[in-house]
Structure formats: structure tokens, C-alpha cells
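Lecture notes, unit on protein representations.

Consider one protein chain, 310 amino acids long.
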Amino acid sequence: MKKFAFVFPGQGSQSRGMMNGYADFPEVRNTFDEASEVLGQDLWQLVEEGSDADLAATVNTQPVMMTAGIAVFRAWQARHGAVPSILAGHSLGEYTAMVASGALSFADALPLVRYRAQCMQQAVPEGVGGIAAILGLDDDAVRAVCTEGAQGEVLEAVNYNSPGQVVIAGNRSAVERGMELAKARGAKRAIMLPMSVPSHCRLMNGAAQQLGEYLKNIKMQSPVIPVLQNADVKSYADEAAIKDALVRQLYSPVRWVETVLEFGKLGVTHNVECAPGKVLAGLNKRITPDQQALSMHDGAALLQVLDTLA
């Protein structure tokens, strides 16, 4: 019996021309047109012609990646794809999952994620924060590196992406120390990521407070499809509990390994990345061999997933 989950990526999966593989799916362009009207910005032009710097700007990346994920989800629905048993999203992708779940309207979610991005950017001035991927050390070793490298500043493990891939974030100088310590302890690689915002660490506490105030005016309802939240790997039906989880997510680590393993405990046999790109599919393959990791990175791949899960 096939039981599948949909997962939605966050920042880092964007690229110019990333929607070109869906040319035969009118729902995709229609979704971008809808989002552009809501935000008063041409997101389709941004994705097709924008510079790498424009696409990487947090205030652009967050609405663009949400729109891309919902566009692919709608293309799936238009081809009578089955309803996933459960959803999850990586960081920003959690908001895409909330829209796909029916808990949050697309029209409300777009300005919400743009506001979230603005709060994050304003919380830590350009150049003050840093974020880096550590490859080849286990979780305990990375946490020890953070403890040693902090030296009075903020340095925390913020994304548990797959076994041997943990992201650290905090003050840029602390992140740089952490990278050197990680290499000294045997890390295969330590790579500073091209993101100015040190997400999911306590430097985001102020942004989280602002987000919480904004969320008070957003209407949410019980998800039709359950969503596993990043902060605690639990799903909630209550509006207040969902909002609380979204606020905590901003300063708490993304527990992605635990999320995918929880899918397995719930009987999931296939997890499907619903968006352009294959970042999560790659992580999910490394987390467990018990689930087949698929991606709908273009139209042909979407049709192939339809066949696989039929």
C-alpha cells in the first residue's frame, strides 16, 4: 500500500528559469500571475529574468519559493493526483505546506512571508550574521563546535538536514570560528552559505516577536492535510498552536531528519518534493532507505510521479 508525503523546500532552491520545465502546465503561470497581483510585483519576470542577487534577496526568495511550490501543487491537483497523507516544509517551505494543507489562504500567506522576510533581514544588519553548512560531522560534534566557537557570541546548530549535514548560524565571526573548529575536528567541508540572515537561531528572537504580532491578524483553520512542524515535529489542528509553532520555528532549529523519520513511523512509503529542484529529495534519500524519495522538479518528473503513485 502506497502512502505518500509532500515536502516543500525553502530558501536556497531558487534559480533563474526554474519554472521553465512546467511550460505545459497553465496552472503554474496562473499561480504566478495571482501572486504578482497580490504583492504588486511581477514574480514571473523575477524568476525568468532576475539576477542571482535579486532572487537571493530574502524578501524576494520567500514569496517566490512559496509561489513555486503552490504552482506545482496545483499542477498536481489539476491532473487528479491523489491527496498526500501528510505534509512538511523546510523552513520557509513550512508556510507553503500550510497553504497546501488548507490551513492558510494563498492570498494571506504571500504578504505574510514577505513580512517574515523583512523582519528577519531587519533583525540582523547586513554583514553581522552568518550561516554555514558543516559536512561530515555528527550532530553532537557540531553542537560541541558551536559551544566552543561562540566565545560570548551566538553560534547554534540550526538545520539538521541529513546525517552528516548540519547548518550552523549566528554572529558571522562566531560562524567563521565554528567553521575552522569543525575542519580541525575532521569535517569534510565547512561552507559559508550565500544568505545574510542567520535563520533559526536566537538572533531571530526579535523577528519572531514581530511575526507573532502580525499572525494575530491572520485567519487560520484546521489543516485538511496534517503538517509536521519544523520546531517540534508535531502536527496541530488548533489555530493558536499552529501560530505558536510558526513563531518558534524562526528561532528554533529545523529538525528535518526527525521529520522524515517520523514520516516512516506514520507509514509513509514515498516522500515527494513538490517544487522545482531536488534539494530535499537528495537529503531525504540520505536520511532513510525505507522511503522512496521523489521530486517533481519539472513537468516530466511530475507526470512520472503521478504514474509511480497511481
